[in-house]
Amino acid sequence: MTSKPTKKTSTASQTAAIMAGKLIALLATFTMPLFLTRFLSKFEFGVYSQFYVLVNFFTIFFSMGIQSNLYFFYPKASEQDRKSLIVHTLLLLMALTFLAILLINIPFLNQYILGTGDLANYTIFVSLGILFLLPLVIIEPLYVAKTDNITSVFYPPFVVVSRLLLVIVFAVYWQSLNSVMTGMVLAGLICFLFVLIYSLKGIGVWQIKKVINLQLAKKQIKYSWPFGLALVLNTLALQFDKIICISFLDPASFATYAIVFYGIPGVQQVYQSLSQVYLMKMSAKHHENKPHEILNLYKSLVTKTYSFSIPAIALVSLYAERIIVLFFTDKYIDAVPLFRIYILTFLIFMLGAGLFLRATDRTIYSLKAYFYSSLFTLPLTYFLIKYFGLWGGLTSAMVSIILPKSIQLKMEMKLINSTIFSYFPWLKFLNIAIIALVSIIPFALAEYFLEYGDFVAALFGVSYLLIVSLVEIKFGLFVFDGVSIESIISKVVEKIPFLRGLRKSFVVLPQKSNDKRGI
User: Fold this and answer.
1) In this predicted structure, what is the pLDDT of residue 24?
2) How far apart are CA 218 and CA 85, in angstroms?
């Protein structure tokens, strides 16, 4: 008899599905710069990076976090209300999309947003990129709220692979920067159509008016607007340095600056997967009026995030020069010192500042945190970039990350009358750090005293992560515990015929006993 999956294993399965989709997409994502940094000159790659940064900035900025209401309302809503939630969210996103495109095309604003350099020649591509990418933000909270593990796994790679294939085909055929941007836009169109079909499945275009519920829409907006404005300020703080750099850095220097912010492969994707699942669990505990259980969930989350982020930071810092040269060629080696410093900010990012506020419907506090910090960080960013260039940009970017998140964490502690000593699982953090740093010592010695190729370095990297993971599993610090890992492996094996058959062939059937004393 097959036992029903527990809530723990079902959560692990959903987290694993979301992680799998993001990590598979990540592999394809890193293929893009691998191709473009070799196909385009450093100047052209800088213009492409400006285009990519601007489209993503407008996508996040003008979505205003509207889609986040689905995490909060969808799981507990009736079937009719769920249709209304989706339609309201989609209509609001489309309205914000057209507002963003309108602002991009106003001549007076255009020169301040796109600058007066080469990027200004690509206004049409920026507009189309926003049109097809901004509404896509609805799909992730939707498939997470629906617990749709299949879409969780396959959608993120579909987006990246379609973009990669079209960019390569167009670039090789037409041999120009225009062809690269055309491929990006067409890939966005394909994904846009998919998201419309997925979102409106079971609703139908002609039934949209029937499911509009103004009272529910007001609740969605009431929930979303504080978080949305906080997200706007957060995006402005995090991306303002890059927007200012478009005006003050030449495209070649901007290309170097853009490389720094590619971050650590996989870390952000795993964090997002965990936080999305934990946000819904924490919200459920809030609805049940169990604040102490929310804090326990938060401590569990940050333990898991540090379990992979600290080892990742140590490993990537060690092999930073190899990674930059391998993925982006030695033209971008000047990004290495900036890259090593920037990735330290992941230690703050992984603390999930603001997640507790979102789960308890106190997003107004996040808005205040970003508003107060932006009063300081925005003028600082402009000043530092104008007078100190690349290093000024990096410094301002780090301050813009650390300051608002520190304010959010302080607010969260105050709400539950906690202190910095009791709010975080410090002992677990210390254990993770010791495991990560002690384990990397032999690999660091090998890197500085021996000469070997990138293939051997990759094997060393995998060995290091495997060692750290096994030790963390032993001490109950890893992202998944032993039971969850076994459950996930069993489900994967059962879905693959070859592995299922292989597994059965190794099953030892119980032998009949010759002991007849029980007869």
Assistant:
1) 67
2) 11
